[in-house]
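Notes from hallway chat w/ T.B., transcribed later so I don't forget. T.B. wanted the structure written out for a chain they're using in a teaching module, and asked if we could keep both sequence and structure tokens in one place. Agreed to drop them here.
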Amino acid sequence: MLFAATALAPALLAGAQGQPSIDVPAVRSQVEVLAAWAQEEILNAVHARNEQGISLEAIQELDARWVAGEAPSELEEMLNNPCAECAERLEELLAADAAYREGLVMDYQGALVCLTGPSSDDWQVDEAEWQSAFDDDGAGQVFVDRPRYDSSARAILVQISVPIPGPIERGGQAVGVLTVGIERDHFAR
């Protein structure tokens, strides 16, 4: 898995005006943790979702209803995803550290597989975390976003996204993306 140099922008490392800078070894350590989750804990749920063969048209239709606030049952299903108990397992993983505030798993089309809290939409292909981590038809690379205030978490989070690798016999191309929002102070130096 690649750790893109561009993923750690100078503004992230130096810290915004009056904000602490980010400790790169701490970020790299978290990337290793999340990559292990993606390979061991989350992979089955993403494979199961991808095998459902949901069309891009159906994903876009759900996304439009979701954004319009007309898909509460689909959101509830995503929060309590029966797909290999992905949401429950993701909650358990996040509970291991109070700095972990949110998590979401996306499939190869950018649609949500599971998440730990509300999302403004279902289809994540327009989000930097999916675009960068999935990277060019599944080439996959780690993406670390700059710290941002997250209103649902009520905290400044650094989102780390890792590709979920597919089988080696298929070239190990990414089959999805795991993104976790971690409190910025966890990385302060």
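Follow-up for T.B.: The beta strands are 2-3, 100-107, 112-115, 141-144, 148-150, 155-165, 174-183. Might be a good example for the class.
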